[in-house]
Amino acid sequence: MTAPGRFIVLEGIDGAGKSSQVGPLARWLEARGRAVTVCRDPGSTPAGDAIRAILLDRREIHLAPTAEMLLYMAARAQLVGEVVRPALARGSWVVSDRFLPANVVYQGHAGGLDPDTIRALGAIATGGLEPDLVLLLDVDLDTAARRLDRPLDKLENRGDDFRARLRAGYLAEATRDPARFAVIDAAADEGTVAERLRAAIGARFPELR
User: At 64, which CATH number?
Assistant: First the structure.
């Protein structure tokens, strides 16, 4: 019988460094004998990539907050059905760059929609699937801003007040669900942050130590 896979999600404000940690984390898991599937939310399916372009890249398209939130849900539903659940069923560990917590924080805590409503809709979009572990890379706003040395997407361009609400929202979500979240100090260099991520995973899954 195939051993169950695990579902790990990296979250954090823009500039926290989560995207740069996904690859090294996947390779670390593979070195410990785990099959690994890497994905990003939104994206990683043809439908999800098309939705991602609307959400993040096409600046001329104005979206109402509820429309934006529902597009994320549509991309996530496709991601779960096409990628995440099949990978977990075959025993693969899934490492995702963002998942439902990002929706709750970006469109909820920071964007003004009701977080509980977003969670309820998220349960429908994902069929109730939740991560086994959410690694929240927490970083101060000044450090995050210095790291964003590239053209910014729609969400990254919303200003300092929005980013402050994002960080506060993520920390509130971690406080709300401490059994699922691990908060990682991500202000250090990439190598140190990678070590902290591995330590948090080892604490949650002792078989990986």
Answer: 3.40.50.300
Residue 2 lies in a domain: no
The domain total for the chain is 1
Give backbone dihedrals phi and psi of 33, rounded to 5 degrees, phi first. Answer: 85, 10
Tens-binned pLDDT, residue by residue, of the chain (209 aa): 567 799 999 999 999 999 999 999 999 999 999 999 999 999 999 999 999 999 986 667 888 999 999 999 999 999 999 999 999 999 999 999 999 999 999 999 999 999 999 999 999 999 999 999 999 999 999 888 887 765 555 555 666 899 999 999 999 999 999 999 999 999 999 999 999 999 999 999 988 87
Does 209 reside within a domain? no
